[in-house]
Structures are given as structure tokens and as C-alpha cells.
User: What shape does this take?
Amino acid sequence: MQLTPESRAERLRTVLERAFTPTRLDITDDSARHAGHAGAAPGGQTHYSVVLVSPRFRGCSRVERSRLVHQALEAEFAGGLHALALTLRAPEEPT
Amino acid sequence: MSGTTMSGQTNEPVRDRIQSEITANPVMLYMKGTAMFPQCGFSARVVQILTHLGVPFQTANVLEDMALREGIKQFSNWPTIPQLYVGGEFVGGCDIVTEMFQSGELETLMQEKGVSRPAA
Assistant: This one.
């Protein structure tokens, strides 16, 4: 596992763009809303929401879609990513 | 508090415990805290949805048991808590449960699995 020094949001964007060629990718850092509770780290960068629209999700169940994202971000989970709220859609589906 | 990969082997007692819990309990929720006192907003939301549906459910508090906390992640191949099982099958975490509740699919799933609210 190798984490580059840029912010986690930037890394998430790089990894997700590469893995999913998304037509839409919104990443929100929710860490401040969770500050002080279990899993929150002093520097933040622990809790994120992601909206990801990608043709790769066509024909995949909800669990399969999330697993694809979890696998792409395995290094981030191992490195302190604590919570990831996912909205995953194929391009023809409403977000 | 991650620090583990998702690819590791779940240790056997934990795996057996989880397998018997999801078999014995038609609706089994692995969460942080208890149904009465959830200790995480995502866990709280799933409790709220199950309570709203009125189905009986059992919970396990992963904060009380480090082996369970890591074990359930590996068992389900899913890196976050909460995790919901219905009829012995993994349904998902907070996002999926919320989406399925909003679309009515969660209630349908409960009915398909023979989980119904107790007679009043």
C-alpha cells in the first residue's frame, strides 16, 4: 500500500476516475461533521460521501457496485478511511 | 480504526459465531452500539429503518468485540459497519439499506424471506 501525500479527496478522485471513467463524480469530505466520535482522526479525512455515475455499474447489483468501489479503494480503507457513503448509478439511472 | 485488509481470513470461532447468528436470526444487524443506544449515525439510521418496518431484529455490538469487528468485515467482504443480514444473506450497509427502504424493496425482501411484523 502506498499513499501519496496529497489529500485523501484528491486520491479518491484520481483512483475513482481511473477505475470507473465516471460521467459524474462528486466527492464530499464529511469528516468535520463526525469530529470527536469514534473513527474520526484529528486531521480529519476519515468520512466521505461519493456520488459516482459510471457505465461500469450497468448490470451490477447494489452490493456488487459497492464492492467494486471498496476494492478500488482498499488501500485507503487500510490507511484510515473510516466511512464512505456511496451513491452509485449507471448513466441511464436517476441520481 | 481499519488497519486490516479485506482479503484476510476470518478466524474460525468468529466465523462460526457469525454464521450461526445470521442463520438463527432472520434479521441480524452488526452495528456500533445497541439498538437502544447506537454509537454511530449510520448504525442509528439502520435501526430506525428496521424499527419503522416493525420487523423483529437482533443486533450485535462490534464495539464490544474487536475480533467480531474485524471478523464481520472479512466475513462479508465489506469494509464498514453497519452490516445487515436478512434470511442469512448479506443485504448491505447504511446506504443500500436506506435506498432499498425508500424504494420499497426492503419491505419486499422481508416478505420474501418470511420476516413479518409480529401480530399486534
User: Anything to note?
Assistant: The radius of gyration of chain B is 14 Å. The helical segments of chain B are 12-24, 41-53, 66-76, 94-103, 105-112. Confidence is low (pLDDT under 50) at residues 1-7 of chain B.
